[in-house]
Amino acid sequence: MSKPICNLYNKDKKFTRRKFHRRGVAAVEFALCLPLLMLLLLGLWEVGRIAQVVNVLKNGAREAARDASLGQDNFQTVASNLAAYLQGALPTAFGQGHSTTLQVPSITLPANTTGLTCWDNTTNQELFTITFTDITNPSVADPTAMQKLDHYKVGIQVP
């Protein structure tokens, strides 16, 4: 005859429960929950990293637009300043310490848009492309040729 798993009444007619052997149950539950917990934490970390990169790119575009609005630097200098800013803010993403060059973009740009691509010669890959468009006077291709009240757009594209 087998023993019952749970004996609700003992000899003294008091309500009791036998103690179950629960050795190792917490470790098994932890082992089952750990992959889900790690996936959640790594996902949150990645979302935070994406938000950081977007914020740095927006700030870099703002800084480049500010440089262009002064009308003192040509587009090559504005792009070089942007490359230095991005490499300082996110060194692993934008190849700090690598040999980089600014070259004509390999992508097709919209009409009346000037652009430069920052190319990482060390890893042989594109880092970003900066574009400049004077909306008021589309024939202007350089910030030094803008008028004081011209509207323009500076954009940054990353691969």
Task: Outline the structure in words.
The radius of gyration is 31 Å and the shape is elongated. It has one domain (25-157). The protein contains 2 helices and 4 strands. Helices cover 38% and strands 17% of the residues. By secondary structure, the protein is an alpha+beta fold. The chain has helices at 25-70, 75-89; strands spanning 100-103, 114-120, 125-134, 152-157. A hairpin with a 4-residue loop joins strand 2 and strand 3 (125-134). Helix 1 (25-70) runs antiparallel to helix 2 (75-89). The protein has a 4-stranded antiparallel β-sheet with strand order 1-2-3-4, with helices on one face.
Task: List its salient traits.
about 160 residues, alpha+beta, 4-stranded antiparallel β-sheet, 2 helices, elongated
Low-confidence stretches: none
Structural class: alpha+beta
| Helix percentage | 25-40%
The multimeric state of the shown protein is: single chain
Radius of gyration: 31 Å
Describe the strand arrangement of the main beta sheet, using strand numbers.
1-2-3-4
Coarse shape: elongated
Domain count? 1
SS field, number of helical segments? 2
Q: Distance between the terminal alpha carbons, to the nearest Å? A: 73 Å
Mean pLDDT: 85
Number of strand elements? 4
Beta-strand level of the residues, as a percent range? 15-25%
Q: What is the H/E string?
A: HHEEEE
Q: Describe the main β-sheet briefly.
A: 4 strands, antiparallel
